[in-house]
Design brief:
Helix content is 35%, strand content 22%. It has 479 residues and is an alpha/beta fold. It has a nine-stranded mixed beta sheet, sandwiched between helices. Strands 17-16-15-18-19-20 form a six-stranded parallel beta sheet, sandwiched between helices. It is globular and about 65 Å long. Bound molecules: adenosine-5'-diphosphate. Adenosine-5'-diphosphate (ADP) binds at residues 17-19, 21, 299-301, 328-330, 356-358, 361, 380-383. Adenosine-5'-diphosphate binds next to helix 1, strand 15, strand 16, helix 12 and helix 13.
Length: 479
């Protein structure tokens, strides 16, 4: 099959979270199964000069009506480090900016225009590819208009929409509907209109031939009022074409046996390297060695969904008994401030690093004993898969993908890979921390869980077969 992915993120070039990681791995996993898969992304600042991408101008020029204006875009082409073909939609006025979606906590005011333009360019690229593609696979609200455009124009592509996070819907005031140049009837309950606004994700759900979420649990949660972020009724109405498919982890990149970002390699049967990484991590962030207590860590977008609020009430207790805490995070400025203040109260035990730092994110996974994911909601939670692989045992709330990824440690049966809690409150988190600390003090028991966690397999091989089934169901078995 021939599949064109459309996404606003692509690791390692442009990423704020797991979306980019999926776009790095899924097309490559499809290619490994004999399919042709490429990706279209906006040409953000720095991409043209990025040697790893080796972008070149295809010479294709698009003149795209966006509302009353016609916007010009260039199509460039490069290759990701894993060989996947990447198309770049270049329009510097729209995409050559500091951030992907905004700056200093504020979304760009023209995001509707930027991603409507992007979606229209995706359709134009799809139309020009020869031999023709079978499926356009759009990701999240930024590309969710693609299925609407395809259906409205009766184009011969099957469309799939993956929702990586239903909380982000691309909801704009109704006037922006004019930017789509779609016929007026599309701004209705049967189209992209949602309570007077234009809601791009809702349009994608209605018009895509199939839509998926990034875990089976999340597929169930988004059909409930609690987990549906206002769209649960829409999701329920279209549940017949909804598939929950847990993402995979890309072990070519996230593997302590081969990771170029960490000072010493290790594997389940030879864990000395993990000790060295732990020491290197503490030194790197300027914390004293912790001979007896565990190193807790978080690598996260600083957003409400990630459960940062649960951390503050337990920090003092967590850091007792020689424990350490390292948080690498970027996002909400309120959380950044609170974390900074908390870290100053425990300068010898707690370091907060603000920003996005790929190398440090790998070192943290390798050096940490415990990885904190107290998420309020977590569609997938790729970092929990990485944490398992690196033997940083997750403390996770049983929500969304985390529910599928982390198994609670059960001493009676000597099973489990982490510490799971259910209620969203600090005391439930604290209970999991107490259990983790207690087991940590028992070195042989801890080592056994670490080894089990590192052997858990969440590779893309399983997920990619499910996507194949979805595509095949749309275009027919013969393909
Ligand atoms: P989400 O998609 O909700 O952000 P995931 O856990 O699925 O959460 O994926 C997050 C991805 O983003 C991981 O690859 C993680 O390492 C990366 N990441 C998140 N925050 C940072 C950061 N501050 N620095 C480096 N990488 C980060």
């Amino acid at each position: 099959m021939k599949i064109l992915h459309a996404s606003s993120e692509l690791t390692p070039f442009a990423r704020t979270g797991g979306l980019g990681d999926v776009l790095e791995a899924l097309p490559a996993a499809l290619a490994a199964r004999g399919h042709e898969a490429s990706v279209v992304v906006p040409c953000y600042r720095g991409l043209l000069g990025d040697q790893r991408l080796g972008a070149r101008d295809t010479g294709v020029r698009l003149h795209v009506p966006v509302g009353t204006r016609v916007l010009d875009a260039e199509i460039w082409e490069g290759r990701a480090p894993n060989g996947v073909q990447v198309f770049l939609v270049r329009r510097d006025e729209s995409f050559d900016r500091v951030g992907l979606y905004g700056e200093e906590g504020h979304d760009y005011g023209d995001n509707a225009e930027r991603f409507i333009l992007f979606s229209k360019c995706v359709v134009e690229i799809a139309r020009r590819i020869s031999p023709p593609i079978d499926v356009i696979h759009a990701h999240d609200w930024q590309a969710a208009l693609v299925p609407v455009l395809v259906k409205e124009r009766n184009l011969p592509f099957a469309t799939v929409l993956t929702i990586h996070n239903l909380a982000y819907q691309g909801s704009f005031w109704g006037v922006d509907f004019g930017l789509t140049n779609l016929p007026g009837h599309c701004f209705s309950a049967r189209g992209v209109e949602f309570f007077g606004n234009m809601n791009l994700l809702k349009g994608g759900i209605l018009f895509a031939d199939a839509f998926t979420t990034v875990s089976e649990t999340y597929a169930r949660e988004v059909q409930t009022p609690e987990g549906g972020a206002g769209l649960d009724a829409v999701v329920r109405e279209h549940a017949h074409k909804l598939h929950g498919i847990l993402n995979g982890a890309d072990y070519d990149i996230w593997n302590p046996a081969t990771d170029k970002f960490i000072p010493k390699a290790y594997k389940p049967s030879a864990l000395a390297g993990k000790k060295a990484c732990r020491a290197a991590l503490l030194e790197e962030v300027g914390l004293a060695p912790a001979p007896t207590g565990p190193v807790f860590a978080m690598v996260t977008r600083l957003a409400e969904q990630k459960g940062i609020d649960l951390i503050f009430p337990v920090i003092d207790r967590m850091l007792s008994n020689d424990a350490r805490l390292i948080v690498l995070g970027d996002g909400d400025s309120g959380y950044e401030r609170e974390l900074m203040i908390a870290s100053r109260q425990h300068p010898e035990r707690f370091v907060f690093r603000k920003g996005v730092d790929e190398q440090l994110s790998h070192l943290i996974q390798a050096g940490a004993d415990v990885f904190l994911m107290p998420s309020h909601s977590e569609p997938c939670g790729l970092t929990a898969m990485y944490a398992l692989k690196y033997g940083a045992l997750p403390i996770a709330r049983a929500t969304g993908g985390l529910y599928q990824i982390v198994q609670d440690y059960d001493p009676a049966h000597d099973s489990g890979t982490g510490f799971v809690f259910h209620d969203y409150n600090p005391e439930a988190l604290w209970d999991a921390i107490v259990r983790a600390k207690r087991v940590f003090a028992d070195a042989p028991a801890w080592k056994a869980i670490v080894q089990r966690a590192m052997k858990a397999d969440f590779s893309w091989a399983r997920a990619v077969v499910r996507f194949e089934e979805v595509y095949r169901g749309l275009i027919g078995g013969a393909a």
